[in-house]
Amino acid sequence: MATPVKGISTRAARAEQTKQHILDTAQRLFSELGYDATSLQMIADEMGLTKAAVYYHFRAKSDILHAAMVPGIRRIEALLDEAAAMRGRRARIEHLVNGFVDFLVQNRQYAVMASTDPAAKRHKLEDEAATLRRRALTLFFGENPTGGERLSYYAVFYLSESLPDLVDLTDEELREALKTTMLRILRVTPSSLPSRPDRN
Predict the structure, then answer these.
(1) Widest CA span of the chain, in angstroms?
(2) DSSP string of 77-143, one letter each residue
(3) How far is residue 130's CA from residue 127's CA, in Å, rounded to a whole number?
(4) What would the pLDDT profile of 14-25 be if each residue is shown by its tens digit?
(5) What separation in angstroms does the CA of 31 have from each of 24, 97, 114, 117?
(6) What share of the chain is helix, strand, coil (3-state, %, to 5)?
(7) How many angstroms separate the CA atoms of 118 and 36, rounded?
(8) d(CA 92, CA 140)
(9) Which of 155, 53, 185, 179 is nearest to 104 (CA)?
């Protein structure tokens, strides 16, 4: 009885490896060529597979993009959960900024593609991403942020749009530039933070 189970398990593992390889190849081509300009046939050709083989794992190109984005969405969810459990506005903001910066640096290739390719912004997870953005705003500034607080939050959030112009920076240079700029915009300094009570 063990042999058939092992055979099924091996086939399943191979299928999962192929699926991940398709995903990795597609992400690279999306970044290099743009989402709209990349076809399933191009992904198949790059891997030496038939289009049917790619289609077996992903029924549409949008499904590949969705699969590529899910881990990032889950990581941001976890970051927000961690921040929500922290007491003190400064600690919470620094944790969120550090986590967001690490996420952008680790995914900078995809972030560049997402910010320059309009088609890549039309994805199934947009509603979920919008919910996470609203939750993050509350964690930064409470339930009733002022106009200035909302503006500073969105200025920080959309810094990722500048990544195409920062491709010359190393990961460490980008990490330092993003962190310093975000904290400056949010006015997270030793002199300003203690003067404002925690509203949560």
Answers:
(1) 70
(2) HHHHHHHHT--SHHHHHHHHHHHHHHHHHHTHHHHHHHHH-GGGGS-TTHHHHHHHHHHHHHHHH-S
(3) 5
(4) 888 999 999 999
(5) 11, 25, 8, 9
(6) 75, 0, 25
(7) 9
(8) 7
(9) 179
Answer whether 58's CB lies under 8 Å from 64's CB.
yes
pTM: 0.72
User: Which tens digits make up the pLDDT trace of 126-143?
Assistant: 777 788 889 999 999 999
Amino acid of residue 50: T
d(CA 65, CA 71): 11
Q: In terms of residues, how long is the chain?
A: 200
Instruction: Give 39-48 pLDDT, tens digit per residue.
Output: 999 999 999 9
Identity of the residue numbered 199: R
How many degrees, rounded to 5, is the angle at CA 179 between CA 174 and CA 183? 150
Q: By the 8 A CB rule, do 26 and 42 touch?
A: no
CA distance 101 to 96: 8
